[in-house]
């Protein structure tokens, strides 16, 4: 398959992505008023914002100073930072424009690009983290899954992303979780790192 043929196929795929994205949005807004749904979608957008998650999690690590939480706290922090870096690099490579750029959109740096969706990757990673890597109480799985799917759907309904952007983002999030699982920070290492950063670590010869 030549370069020109691959280019034509990609162009057709992107064209169909635009068409089906518009069909999905039109279909949903036939049954739910745009103004009402937009308010919920904006809340979901904020709930999965990368900077908000990163700063909030750092604050949580600082406030919830418990050795039993160190491993979970540090691994999720590593994953959040890793996700921001991966999405920034991928967006810089693909440079696909968003369906529309709204004045009220939370933008920062590479987020002016569309593929893959950072919100979708982040929500999928968080889902994988709390269900697979560091399982929480099973009764919480349904709310986490519902939040993840709602965040991903809201990206399309707010015209932030096309369908393929969201699917690509979710795929990236799952791969990120698998990668974090391979590099999982042990309990002792996590405890040493957090104690060192918070100046609570005393070498043995100083005790």
List the helices and strands and how they pair.
Elements: H1 3-29, H2 34-47, H3 50-63, H4 67-94, H5 118-133, H6 141-157, H7 163-182, H8 187-197
Protein model, in words:
- The protein is an all-alpha fold and 207 residues long.
- The chain has a single domain, classed as Up-down Bundle (Vanadium-containing Chloroperoxidase, domain 1), CATH 1.20.144.
- It has eight helices and no strands.
- Helix 3 packs antiparallel against helix 4, helix 4 packs across helix 8 and helix 6 runs antiparallel to helix 7.
- The longest helix has 28 residues.
- The protein starts with a helix and ends in a 10-residue tail after the last helix.
- The C terminus is likely disordered.
Q: What does this entry show, briefly?
A:
With 207 residues, this protein is mainly α.
List the keywords.
207 residues; mainly alpha; Vanadium-containing Chloroperoxidase, domain 1; 8 helices; 71% helix; globular
Second-tier CATH architecture:
Up-down Bundle
CATH topology, by name, is: Vanadium-containing Chloroperoxidase, domain 1
What number of domains?
1
Rg result: 20 Å
CATH class: Mainly Alpha
The end-to-end span amounts to: 68 Å
Q: N-to-C SSE series?
A: HHHHHHHH
Sheet having the most strands: none
Number of strands: 0
Helical/strand content category? mainly alpha
What percent of residues adopt helix (DSSP H or I)? Answer: over 70%
Low-confidence stretches: 105-110, 201-207
What best-fitting shape do the alpha-carbon axes yield?
Answer: globular
How big a fraction of the residues is strand?
under 5%
**Separate helix tally:** 8
State mean pLDDT (0 to 100 scale). Answer: 86
């Amino acid at each position: 398959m030549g370069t020109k043929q691959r280019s034509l196929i990609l162009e057709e795929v992107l064209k169909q992505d635009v068409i089906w994205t518009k069909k999905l949005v039109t279909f949903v807004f036939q049954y739910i008023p745009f103004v009402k749904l937009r308010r919920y979608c904006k809340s979901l957008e904020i709930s999965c914002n990368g900077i908000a998650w990163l700063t909030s999690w750092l604050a949580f690590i600082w406030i919830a100073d418990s050795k039993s939480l160190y491993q979970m706290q540090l691994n999720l922090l590593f994953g959040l930072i890793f996700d921001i870096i991966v999405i920034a690099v991928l967006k810089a490579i693909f440079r696909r424009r968003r369906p529309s750029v709204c004045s009220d959109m939370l933008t920062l740096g590479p987020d002016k690009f569309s593929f893959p969706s950072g919100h979708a990757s982040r929500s999928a990673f968080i889902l994988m983290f709390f269900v697979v890597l560091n399982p929480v109480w099973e009764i919480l799985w349904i709310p986490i899954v519902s939040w993840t799917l709602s965040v991903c759907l809201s990206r399309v309904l707010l015209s932030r992303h096309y369908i393929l952007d969201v699917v690509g983002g979710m795929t990236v999030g799952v791969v990120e979780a698998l990668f974090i699982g391979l590099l999982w920070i042990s309990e002792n290492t996590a405890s040493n790192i957090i104690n060192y950063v918070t100046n609570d670590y005393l070498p043995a010869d100083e005790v």
